[in-house]
């Protein structure tokens, strides 16, 4: 609560242009925001500050794994005013196709890194380091929480980290040792002159108590805090916000840098199965960038624009940084001609 109060105070001091009531009427207008799980705390801070300035609006936040965020609109047919995901590439990949695309632009607004969250009493926590973490995770009496790569960006990024670690530490057994026989069929690794590809099977369920699989990384938090698992790959802002112990991994594998441990080829994760019959989701190991868009069909376009404008503003960045999310100083869009005019001044 103190973070939110500080954020509101800063917004009131800095945001004279925003300080007006928009969205009149007796009942607040709803702004439906669907976001990645790692954005829950940042967006809750945005919600509190936004509604303080715009009491005529009610921001409603719903969180999922990033792939599921987009599928709410593209597959399940739901309407949303704002979508925000932990991997910008998902928006053009899953929303741009066809004669009636679900979206036509995105804006990258934040970055992050993945590391290991744990408790001080997690198994072998005293032995954990940047040199030993994969050995700890491979032990039979250690329980690891994983986000499902079929639904969540942190899930396929976790697979990337385990494979990149093999190149960094010059040990080609890390991926297999950590995952063990948890999945049948297993993640398949293929290599050619261009890329190393990790192919995720359509049936991807853990068959061992060593691995706890959930639909998004934030769903692992209760398991970790309750002692059901020892470790989980989490974004840094999530671990810091919830006060978890956190091991930062080397930048060449934590997807916080443009330079990764595999230098001569691309590292890809392939989700080539029937659920994505119209596209072939092929994810590249690269620096983590979050992105926001407004779907083409919205119920509250005015509210969506206001919320997104606030997110990109200096005041909005202050709110998100108060929850440890690293925002960008220079926003990036793929299609400036399609970006709404009210947002262009932030680009």
Written overview of the protein:
With 347 residues, this protein is of the alpha/beta class. It has two domains: 168 residues, 3-Layer(aba) Sandwich (D-Maltodextrin-Binding Protein, domain 2); 171 residues, D-Maltodextrin-Binding Protein, domain 2, CATH 3.40.190. Helix content is 29%, strand content 22%. The longest helix is centred in the middle third of the chain and has 16 residues. The radius of gyration is 20 Å and the shape is globular. It starts with a helix and ends in a 14-residue tail after the last strand.
List keywords for this structure.
347 residues, alpha/beta, D-Maltodextrin-Binding Protein, domain 2, 2 domains, six-stranded mixed sheet, five-stranded mixed sheet, 11 helices, globular, disordered N terminus
CATH topology of the largest domain: D-Maltodextrin-Binding Protein, domain 2
Strand order of the largest sheet: 2-1-3-14-4-15
CATH architecture of the largest domain: 3-Layer(aba) Sandwich
- Derived from helix and strand composition plus strand pairing, the structural class reads alpha/beta
Count of folded domains: 2
Largest sheet: 6 strands, mixed
What is the terminal separation in angstroms? 31 Å
How would the global form be characterised?
Answer: globular
- What is the H level of CATH, i.e. the homologous superfamily of the largest domain? Periplasmic binding protein-like II
Question: Helical content, roughly?
Answer: 25-40%
